[in-house]
Write a structure and sequence with these properties.
Belongs to the OMP decarboxylase family. Substrate binds at residues 39, 61, 152, 221, 241-242. By secondary structure, the protein is of the alpha/beta class. The protein has a single domain (3-279), classed as TIM Barrel. Helices cover 40% and strands 14% of the residues. It is built from ten helices and eight strands. An eight-stranded parallel beta barrel has the order 1-2-3-4-5-6-7-8, surrounded by seven helices. The longest helix has 27 residues, at 253-279. The protein is globular. The structure holds 6-sulfanyluridine-5'-phosphate. 6-sulfanyluridine-5'-phosphate binds next to strand 8 and helix 9.
Length: 280
């Protein structure tokens, strides 16, 4: 049986990367495979959304560079909320440059991402050196990296041979690469000639493009339901943004909380169904 079909708790025990282990433990503790993507531009909205959805998530995803009134103290507030609600932090930086540059972007500048973000992600487009560069900064801090193996947008170029190469790059860097941003599982993908799938391989699949009420956003985004992502495609964590907070200009925080609860339940039920199906 593929390792990903085990419970989150069992899978946590077998992870060699501390961020992957901590994430799976938080998922199990909170009974939540929901990651909320907080794509808003004011610190106030950012913190109020996170405080509202905090009880229902195991992971908060940020785009810290879109905050217009960013100050380093925002990171302290974010860390306080992470401790208060028991979630990990994922800065969705999508690094895509040469090893030396990404190491600087990860460690330095005003945001100093590596100092506070447990997990970050990178496009595999530059080749294995991007992982090497990020690992020089992230590994000593016990961080984990996700590779973008696929994207949720219409016409995405990350498919076929590109996706296969991304998985091979991950297999060559098991200590740091904890999984993929993807729409499907990656077991059996990108095997080299004569190579057999390792049954113990257990990458985390984090899936954006999840929504219960919309099928797209008019700008290329494509949504599937939590059920489709977790049960049909084997995703481990659903990433939901606007499905939860709608239009930030016109936000009712009680409704944001209600939606987070709704998505948590949908994601968790799909996971329970996946476990049950395994026993049938
Ligand atoms: O393929 C992808 C990869 C990512 S990380 N498609 C995505 O949508 N994302 C991110 O997920 C995107 O940058 C955004 O922050 C979030 C989806 O937001 P939503 O509002 O469409 O749910």
């Amino acid at each position: 049986m593929a390792a990903y079909l085990n419970t989150y708790a069992d899978r946590a025990k077998k992870q060699i990367n501390p961020a992957a282990r901590d994430l799976l433990e938080a998922v199990e503790r909170k009974q939540s495979n929901l990651c909320v993507s907080v794509d808003v531009t004011s610190s106030k909205d950012f913190l109020s959304i996170i405080d509202a959805v905090g009880p229902y998530v195991s992971l908060i995803k940020t785009h810290i560079d879109i905050i217009e009134d960013f100050e380093p103290s925002l990171i302290l507030r974010l860390q306080e909320l992470s401790a208060k609600h028991d979630f990990l932090i994922f800065e969705d930086r999508k690094f895509a440059d040469i090893g030396n540059t990404v190491a600087l972007q990860y460690s330095s500048g005003v945001h100093k991402i590596a100092t506070w973000s447990h997990i970050t992600n990178a496009h595999p487009v530059p080749g294995p050196s991007i992982i090497k560069g990020l690992a020089t900064v992230g590994l000593p801090l016990r961080r984990g990296l996700l590779l973008l193996a696929e994207m949720s947008t219409a016409g995405a170029l990350a498919r076929g041979a590109y996706t296969e190469d991304a998985v091979r790059m991950a297999r060559d860097a098991r200590d740091f690469v904890i999984g993929f941003i993807a729409q499907h599982r990656m077991e059996g993908v990108g095997l080299r000639e004569g190579e057999k799938q390792d049954d113990a391989e257990d990458y985390l699949i984090l899936t954006p493009g999840v929504g219960l009420d919309a099928t797209g956003d008019g700008l290329g985004q494509q949504y599937r339901t939590p059920q489709e992502a977790v049960l049909s495609s084997g995703s481990d964590i659903i990433i939901v943004g606007r499905g939860i907070y709608g239009n930030p200009g016109n936000m009712n925080i009680n409704e944001v909380q209600r939606q987070a609860e709704r998505y948590r339940e949908a994601g968790w039920n799909a996971y329970l169904q996946r476990l049950n199906r395994r026993e049938e």
